[in-house]
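TASK: fixed-backbone design
INPUT:
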């Protein structure tokens, strides 16, 4: 303690000899936010005066500030404005003005007793209702066929189009032949284009909130998975208010939305499905054929006011 006091006394005597006992505040040469406005103006004038040699060090020496402080003043007051990102109009989500025009099918994985189960969902796009589900051990077209037949029988209605990704359970003869028998148009997704299946993906994420608790356990029975999926369907369809529907549930939207008319289905069969049958032999051979098929279907539906595409304006940074 004595040594510390002696040190303080020595500093006091040193400042007294140097005439530095006045109550002066230290110069804020390293704290740009404490500088007076006059000092900032001085720095900016020096930078303008010595444009050719106005480095942080040079201006710091001439203004009595640290080079880092000069750099901060430059960034704060003289930073070049970033050029505005060019806006790009990109294709957004697909919207359906009537119910049952489009159903989506997607498959999710569920961890089960150290392995995996697959859960296939059927979603009505306009109301986002989960119309049905199926638990399966493998992705197979026969399961997709069975699930869609089961849902159409339950709903007493079949869609005009079915959206799906290019998974093996959908891109196979069993499932595609069934769609042709029911006169339902297949709508395969494009590669690397998330908005096309956005409704199905969001529904999958909602269902995962229910199944996630089971996946952490190793004593889960199959009936518990079935019960959880049934509870998820009940809550998502009837009890959950949806922000996109201003607080209404999916069931409320489904009940209050007009169904497509039978004449529209007849016209679809006559104008579009007959054209698709001409290319039947090429359907499963090339991804380009699938893309062409999808473009024809979407163009036809938009012309008949059965589908509309919402376009969004985004910058390149937002797209990336």
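OUTPUT:
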């Amino acid at each position: 303690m004595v040594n510390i006091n002696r040190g303080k006394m020595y500093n006091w005597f040193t400042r007294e000899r140097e005439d530095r006992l006045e109550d002066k505040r230290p110069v804020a040469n390293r704290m740009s936010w404490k500088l007076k406005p006059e000092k900032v103006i001085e720095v900016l004038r020096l930078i303008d005066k010595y444009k050719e040699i106005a480095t942080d060090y040079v201006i710091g020496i001439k203004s009595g500030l640290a080079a880092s402080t000069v750099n901060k003043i430059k960034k704060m007051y003289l930073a070049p404005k970033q050029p505005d990102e060019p806006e790009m109009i990109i294709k957004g989500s697909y919207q359906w003005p009537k119910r049952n025009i489009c159903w989506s099918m997607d498959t999710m994985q569920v961890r089960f007793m150290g392995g995996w189960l697959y859960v296939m969902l059927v979603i009505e796009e306009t109301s986002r209702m989960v119309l049905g589900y199926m638990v399966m051990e493998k992705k197979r077209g026969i399961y997709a066929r069975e699930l869609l037949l089961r849902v159409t029988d339950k709903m007493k209605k079949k869609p005009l189009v079915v959206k799906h990704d290019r998974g093996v359970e959908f891109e196979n003869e069993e499932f595609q032949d069934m769609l042709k028998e029911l006169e339902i148009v297949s709508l395969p997704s494009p590669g690397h284009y998330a908005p096309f299946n956005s409704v199905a993906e969001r529904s999958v994420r909602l269902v995962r909130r229910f199944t996630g608790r089971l996946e952490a356990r190793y004593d889960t029975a199959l009936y518990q998975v079935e019960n959880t999926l049934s509870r998820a369907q009940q809550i998502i369809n009837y009890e959950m208010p949806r922000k996109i529907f201003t607080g209404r549930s999916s069931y409320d939207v489904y009940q209050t939305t007009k169904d497509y008319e039978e004449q529209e289905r007849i016209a679809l069969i006559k104008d579009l499905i007959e054209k698709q049958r001409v290319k039947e032999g090429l359907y499963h051979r090339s991804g380009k054929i699938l893309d062409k098929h999808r473009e024809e279907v979407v163009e036809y539906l938009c012309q008949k006011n059965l589908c509309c595409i919402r376009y969004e304006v985004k910058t390149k940074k937002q797209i990336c």
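COMMENT: Strands lie at 87-95, 102-112, 115-124, 129-136, 161-164, 185-188, 308-315.
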